[in-house]
Amino acid sequence: MTQDASSTTADPGVVVGDDGLARPAWAAAAPLLRDYYDTEWGMPVTDERGVYERVSLEGFQAGLSWATILRKRPAFRAAFDNFLPDAIAAYTETDVERLMADVGIVRNRQKIQATITNARATITLREEMGLAELVWSFRPESTPCPQTFAEIPTKSAESVALSKELRRRGFAFVGPTTMYALMEAIGIVDTHLLGSHRRGSSGIWTS
């Protein structure tokens, strides 16, 4: 997940909500974002379908806000067969046109086609380690310890390497910044602010 520039103009670090819990400003902006932050973001995802879905949604987010994608996530899941790679790998041009006509999702032909391409690449990866294992193999030795949003990286040496490896294996819309957002979202790195009540909640990183 990348952040909207408008919500990072002022960077106060954490914001204490009416429930007494400290969160970054972006997660305190709306109930939907707060619930996502409190229950999902940064928690480990290690299954193929789960990682593939998040690769897909991070790709759709490019150039947009995460709030937009999160609001549309139920429609995305319905339109893309709950992000089951085997189902999506069988999509034809008829499915592409169906998706382009679906007002509930982001109707970007390149991103739709990338999602299909990535499903097929995910299936091919099963012959070796599998998508989830590949992605998690790029876990770094340490994780950032940011106090403010401005201190959170937008990419890393590991996300650059992951991006290159996925592209080599036929994936699309997997740039270094998008892959860093993926790594944050599924717990490979912990970029919760030090003052947040969610810091260390994944069990992967304890600092």
Description:
- By secondary structure, the protein is mainly alpha-helical.
- The chain has a domain of 138 residues: Hypothetical protein, domain 2 (Endonuclease III, domain 1, Orthogonal Bundle).
- It is 46% helix and 3% strand.
- It has a two-stranded antiparallel ribbon.
- A hairpin with a 5-residue loop joins strand 1 and strand 2.
- The radius of gyration is 17 Å and the shape is globular.
CATH homologous superfamily identity of the domain at 48-185: Hypothetical protein, domain 2
What's the end-to-end separation, in Å? 21 Å
Specify the structural class.
Answer: mainly alpha
The H-and-E topology, N to C, reads as EEHHHHHHHHH
| Percentage of β-strand residues | under 5%
Helix fraction?
40-55%
- Counting DSSP E segments of at least 2 residues, the number of strands comes to 2
**Largest sheet, order of strands side by side?**
1-2
Mean pLDDT: 93
Taking pLDDT < 50 over at least 5 consecutive residues as the criterion, the unreliable ranges are 3-10
Count of separate DSSP helical elements: 9
CATH topology of the domain at 48-185: Endonuclease III, domain 1
Overall geometry: globular
What is the radius of gyration computed over CA atoms, rounded to a whole number of angstroms? 17 Å
CATH class of the domain at 48-185: Mainly Alpha
Largest sheet: 2 strands, antiparallel
The appropriate CATH architecture of the domain at 48-185 is: Orthogonal Bundle
Protein name: DNA-3-methyladenine glycosylase I
InterPro entries: Adenine_glyco (IPR005019), DNA-3mA_glycosylase (IPR052891), DNA_glycosylase (IPR011257)
Enzyme class: hydrolase
Keywords: Glycosidase, Hydrolase
